[in-house]
Amino acid sequence: MKIGILTSGGDCPGLNAVIRGIVLKGTTTYDLEFVGIRDGWRGVVEGDFMPLTRHEVKGLSKVGGTILGTSRTNPYEGERGGAENIAKTLYGHKIDGIVAIGGEGTLAAADRLAKDGIKVLGVPKTIDNDLRATDYSFGFDTAVNIATDAMDRLRTTGDSHQRCMVAEVMGRHVGWIALHAGMAAGAHVICIPEVPMSIDEITELVTRAHDRGRAPLVVVSEGFTLTGMEEAYSDKGLDAFNRPRLGGIGDLLAPEIERITGIETRATILGHIQRGGSPSAFDRVLATRLGLHAADAIVDGAWGQMVAMQGTDIVRVPFADALGELNTVPRYRYDEAAALFG
Ligand code: F6P
């Protein structure tokens, strides 16, 4: 059996480890043959493939990014898109099924293709940890480690100058990275999309930390909207994918904090640094295990499903379980962190 593997959506540390896991188990335990699909669904639609043998995946578990490339192409768009055309392309290249490694958009497309008769298996990916049906997604732990390290560094420079430091982290719709990195670094305020906060609530916490002799550290998710400042934020417009433009809430927050508290304040936007470089050991293991189990699922013919982490086990779930509502930060988890604000 010949299987195509693709990575789609934003890149994420651990993608290469998944690819390696699938190919190693698929070729040694089973007699599967693999082909790499370039740049996500674009490669499927345009028939752009590359060799994918043991040789190509050598040493890949520690390598960031994706050797296959990625894009945000929708497989149902364009002249050569749609399930019928894709089925013809796959047939022409003797490809029996696809493993799609991606986030919500990728899995939604995979679900639709599966319903239209294409053999697709999913592997969930997101540094934001916003997918349901999997307790953790690979890439999240790496992003949290990078953000925590950055905040530890912000604290020493903040302490030296007695400044308030604002760190903006990724998290388009959910605040998992901010919550975990903020807790790990001992932030005095954590602002996440799930919990509305006004500038007065934030500055009160900043002033309290400052009065205790601390250099206040504020961590904010890129998707956070400050209560009362929605208008200033909505001016940012839409991005190329019709999503509200994100990033920059830290730059909006810092001058407001400084103006209200009188404490000199600096903002740092961590951005794509959180997605680059080597995956953490935890993410390498998780991604590799997902890859190994994906190879088993191919042989079992478990199409239309995705492999996922539940507890410490890797299980199979229908695509639909991961789609729809996002995995948001529950209030009790935020309150645990807030108990440490002081
Ligand atoms: O979903 C992962 C993520 O890194 C988000 O945290 C962020 O909002 C988005 O992708 C950035 O996307 P892009 O790489 O297209 O700028």
Automatic annotation (TrEMBL):
<feature type="binding site">
    <location>
        <position position="163"/>
    </location>
    <ligand>
        <name>substrate</name>
    </ligand>
</feature>
<dbReference type="InterPro" id="IPR000023">
    <property type="entry name" value="Phosphofructokinase_dom"/>
</dbReference>
<keyword id="KW-0479">Metal-binding</keyword>
<keyword id="KW-0460">Magnesium</keyword>
<feature type="binding site">
    <location>
        <position position="10"/>
    </location>
    <ligand>
        <name>ATP</name>
    </ligand>
</feature>
<feature type="binding site" description="in other chain">
    <location>
        <begin position="272"/>
        <end position="275"/>
    </location>
    <ligand>
        <name>substrate</name>
    </ligand>
</feature>
<protein>
    <recommendedName>
        <fullName>ATP-dependent 6-phosphofructokinase</fullName>
        <ecNumber>2.7.1.11</ecNumber>
    </recommendedName>
</protein>
<feature type="binding site">
    <location>
        <begin position="72"/>
        <end position="73"/>
    </location>
    <ligand>
        <name>ATP</name>
    </ligand>
</feature>
<dbReference type="Pfam" id="PF00365">
    <property type="entry name" value="PFK"/>
</dbReference>
<feature type="domain" description="Phosphofructokinase">
    <location>
        <begin position="2"/>
        <end position="298"/>
    </location>
</feature>
<dbReference type="InterPro" id="IPR035966">
    <property type="entry name" value="PKF_sf"/>
</dbReference>
<comment type="similarity">
    <text>Belongs to the phosphofructokinase type A (PFKA) family. Mixed-substrate PFK group III subfamily.</text>
</comment>
<feature type="site" description="Important for substrate specificity; cannot use PPi as phosphoryl donor">
    <location>
        <position position="105"/>
    </location>
</feature>
<dbReference type="InterPro" id="IPR012003">
    <property type="entry name" value="ATP_PFK_prok-type"/>
</dbReference>
<keyword id="KW-0418">Kinase</keyword>
<keyword id="KW-0067">ATP-binding</keyword>
<keyword id="KW-0547">Nucleotide-binding</keyword>
<keyword id="KW-0324">Glycolysis</keyword>
<dbReference type="InterPro" id="IPR015912">
    <property type="entry name" value="Phosphofructokinase_CS"/>
</dbReference>
<comment type="function">
    <text>Catalyzes the phosphorylation of D-fructose 6-phosphate to fructose 1,6-bisphosphate by ATP, the first committing step of glycolysis.</text>
</comment>
<dbReference type="InterPro" id="IPR022953">
    <property type="entry name" value="ATP_PFK"/>
</dbReference>
<feature type="binding site">
    <location>
        <position position="266"/>
    </location>
    <ligand>
        <name>substrate</name>
    </ligand>
</feature>
<comment type="pathway">
    <text>Carbohydrate degradation; glycolysis; D-glyceraldehyde 3-phosphate and glycerone phosphate from D-glucose: step 3/4.</text>
</comment>
<feature type="binding site" description="in other chain">
    <location>
        <begin position="126"/>
        <end position="128"/>
    </location>
    <ligand>
        <name>substrate</name>
    </ligand>
</feature>
<keyword id="KW-0808">Transferase</keyword>
<feature type="active site" description="Proton acceptor">
    <location>
        <position position="128"/>
    </location>
</feature>
<feature type="binding site" description="in other chain">
    <location>
        <position position="222"/>
    </location>
    <ligand>
        <name>substrate</name>
    </ligand>
</feature>
<keyword id="KW-0963">Cytoplasm</keyword>
<dbReference type="InterPro" id="IPR012829">
    <property type="entry name" value="Phosphofructokinase_III"/>
</dbReference>
<feature type="binding site" description="in other chain">
    <location>
        <begin position="170"/>
        <end position="172"/>
    </location>
    <ligand>
        <name>substrate</name>
    </ligand>
</feature>
<comment type="subunit">
    <text>Homodimer or homotetramer.</text>
</comment>
<feature type="binding site">
    <location>
        <position position="104"/>
    </location>
    <ligand>
        <name>Mg(2+)</name>
    </ligand>
</feature>
<feature type="binding site">
    <location>
        <begin position="103"/>
        <end position="106"/>
    </location>
    <ligand>
        <name>ATP</name>
    </ligand>
</feature>
